[in-house]
Amino acid sequence: MNNPLKIFKYAARFLFMSLLLSSIFTACKEEELDKTAPGKVTDISYRPTNGGAVLKFTAPNDDDLLYVKAVYTNALGKEVFKVTSHYRDSIEIDGFKEATPQKVKLYAVDRSNNESEAAEIEVTPLKSFIFLVQESIQMKEQLGGVRITWDNPDQKTVFVYVDFTKNGKTYERILSSSLSSPSLMIRGLEPEEYSFSATVEDFNGNKTDKVDIGTYKPLLEQKIDKSTWKVMQNLSVDGDKWEGTLASFWDDVIDTKEVNTDNSYFIINRDDNGGMLKWPLDIVVDLNKTVVINRFVVWQRAFAYLNAEQNGVSTDYYYYKEENMKSFSINVSTDRITWTSLGNFDIGDPRDAAGNISPAKYKEAIDGHEFNLEAVSPPFRYMKFSILSNYGSETNVYGSEITLYGLDNQ
User: Average of pLDDT values for 245-265?
Assistant: First the structure.
């Protein structure tokens, strides 16, 4: 045994056997623990909610308790369950429709997936919130459509199926929100009478019956003609750099990436504006007429110049790049003295952590970024478009086009 190699081999075998025996012992111990279920859940009470209940309980005092599970049958006849961590003493269940008694079983579950004996309670939920939503639905005529609102105090996700009939033909729009007081638009409607009805559905698939909302006639919506617009140079930044002009912002030519022959955008360069981009950058337009609007669309610059070997053809979109405008505000006036804000707006930054942009966001930029006003604007003649930020450049800001929708020549 004086041979070091033999001593090492014996030691290694001894260590291996010790680890093996320890592993077998632990496995046997765990197997024994696997047979022990947790104690029952006790002291169960509940508070009814619209379409559900919040159960309060006392979990068993087991060291390996993992969670508590509530098992019940929802309004669609499906057995479902909800779980909550062992650190908590309550669990919320939902999926009920009417205010009728429901049986719920609670189980304590340990880390070995052993379930305790069931503890049962009968709960009577309040009438589902989908009925509250449906009863609160209101509509109002808007330019080119109708605005629909409802109350959802529980802030649960709801789906509102709006059917509208015109000349015997029925159409459907599906609206969804979890906001407490959403305000949504149904657009693209002619200034004719439509009969509206609605069905409300929750996330679990419970639905109300269809109810009539009423008959509404949307107002005529027009694309505001831009042929009379003029820039007010003394109130605006200088956006006429290289091929760019401020007037290109309303010339009805939308920039594309495929060719450089439709270069229709403004270029605000710091060298022509005091040596730096001083936010906000104001573009003030005299429409030479009075209008009201309810929405507008803006477009970014799409084209990017490449090197001579590629003949100036852009293979990639310039959307969301450093020089393009990102956020802005719009103010309107009838006299250039008193201005009314229509709001602050942001195109947003769709780039992920790796800098990638989804095809859907490129499509949005191609189609134009649409912004809806909360209410129809007051009548105005002058518009101040104030750029608040771009995507990072300290040298230039680009923008291609703006189109307003509302009522022209008021």
Answer: 92
Count of other CB atoms within 10 angstroms of residue 1: 6
Residue 66 burial (CB count, 10 A) = 17
Contacts of residue 381, Cβ cutoff 8 Å, sequence gap at least 6: 286, 287, 288, 289, 290, 291, 333, 334
Q: What is the pLDDT of residues 98-155, one digit of tens each?
A: 999 999 999 999 999 999 999 999 999 999 999 999 999 999 999 999 999 999 999 9
**CA dist 54 → 82, 106, 125, 350 (Å):** 11, 13, 9, 38
Answer yes or no: are the C-beta atoms of 232 and 285 closer than 8 Å: yes
Domains of the chain by range and CATH?
A: 42-123 (2.60.40.10), 129-216 (2.60.40.10), 222-407 (2.60.120.260)
Cα–Cα dist 113/95, whole Å: 26
Question: Which residues have C-beta within 8 Å of that of residue 179, sequence separation ≥ 6?
Answer: 152, 155
Read off the tokens for 201: 């559905």
Whether 287 and 228 have beta carbons less than 8 Å apart is answered as yes
H runs (alpha helix) in 232-335: none
